[in-house]
Amino acid sequence: MQFPFVLTGGGSGGHVFPALAVARVLRERGHKLLFIGTHQGMEARLVPEAGFELEFIRIGALNRVGRRKQIRTVAQLPLSIVSAWHLLRRFRARAVFSTGGYVAGPVMLAAALARIPLIVMEPNAIPGLANRKIARRVHRALVAFEATCAWFPAGRSEVTGLPVRREFFELTPKPAGTFTLLITGGSQGARTLNRAARESWALFRENKSSTRIVHQCGVAEHESLAREFAASGLEGEVVPFIRNMAEAFGAADLVLSRSGAGTFSEIAAAAVPSILVPLPYAADDHQRRNAEKLVEAAAARMVLDSEMNGERLFREVEALRLSPETLAAMRQRVRAFAKPGAAERAAEVLEQAARGSQ
Fold first, then answer.
1. CA 36 to CA 33: how far, in whole Å?
2. 235: how many CB neighbours lie within 10 A of its CB?
3. CB-side exposure of 213: number of CA atoms within 13 Å?
4. What is the pLDDT of residues 103-147, one digit of tens each?
5. With the CA atoms of 137, 340, 188 and 241 taken in that order, what torsion angle do they form, in degrees rounded to the nearest 10?
6. What's the whole-model pTM score?
7. Which letter, b or e, does each residue of 307-331 get, where b requires 16 or more Cβ atoms within 10 Å of its Cβ?
8. Which residues, including other chains, have CB under 8 Å from residue 154's CB and lie 6 or more apart?
9. For the chain, which domains are there?
10. What are phi and psi for residue 301, nearest 5 degrees?
11. What CA–CA distance (Å, rounded) separates 11 from 9?
C-alpha cells in the first residue's frame, strides 16, 4: 500500500542528508513524498536536486543565536505552524519524519496539532531543543545512543543509528596510488580547518610530501583559499562544496573533519581513517563525545579545536601517511561503528505508523 509522507529537516547538510537517505528508500517503495524546508537552508538546493518535491515555510533559529533573532523567530512561529499545518492537511500526510534543524520545530508542532504520527531522528546523546520540547508527543524516536532513550516516553524509542546514504556502505577499497587527504568542515566549511589547512601548505611543500589534498572549505572562504592553494604548487583542489561526498570518501586515504553525528556515521559507513576536530561550541559537547568513542577504539585520532594549526595538521597527517599498517587497523576498527539498515528501518517505522493511523 502506498502512503503520503512528509519529511522535514534542514539548515545544514547534516540534517538534510539523513532525510534524503530515508526518502530514497520510501521512493523505491512507491510512496508519495513531500519535504518542508526553508529558503535559507541547504535543503532548498539539495532536495530538488535529489528529485523530491519541496515546500517552504518561514522560520529562523532559536538556539545559540542573538536575542534579536530569537525575538524575530518567536514572532514568526505562529504563522509558520499554521503554514506547516495547511501543508500537512493538503498533502494528507499519514506520518511525518523529522531530522531536526530549525525548520523542524513548526512542522513537528503542526503534526502534533493535526494528530499525525511524528517520527523523529535524534543522532546526539542529548536531544536538540526541538526534540526535547516535543518528546512526549512523538510516535517514535529513532536514536543513535542507548542513553538518548531516557529523554523519550518508555517504549517509544529505539537505537537505529543515523540514516546514511547506501553509497557509503558500497564503497570499494581505494586502490594504491597517491596518498589523498580529504579535508571537510561540513557543508558550510569550518574556519579552524580552513586556517590550519592554509598554514600547512608550506610545510607539505617544503617537506616534499607526496600528499594530494582535497579540501571542501565552504562558500565564504573559497575564493581566497582556492587562489592561495593554486599558488602553493601542491597537488589537489579546494572546492566550496562536494556534491558526491561518498565518492570523495572513497578516493581518500584519510579524512580530516569535524565530528558531528552525520560525519561520524559516514566515516563509519565508509570505513575510512580520520583525524577529528570536534566543534567546541556544539550543544552538550556532543562532537567531542562522538570523537572520543572512535579514539577509545583506536579507530580515529582527535585534535582539539584549540590545538589545531598548520603544524599540528601536517604532523598528524604525515605520521599516518608513513604508517600504512596504522591506517589499515583504523579502517578495520571503525567498521564496528557502522549502522547499516538505519534508513530502511526508518522507512519501516513510517509505514507502520501510517497503517496504524488508518
1. 10
2. 14
3. 31
4. 899 999 999 999 999 999 998 878 888 899 899 999 999 998 888
5. -140
6. 0.84
7. ebebebbbebbbebbeeeeebeebb
8. none
9. 4-164+340-356 (3.40.50.2000), 168-337 (3.40.50.2000)
10. -110, 155
11. 7
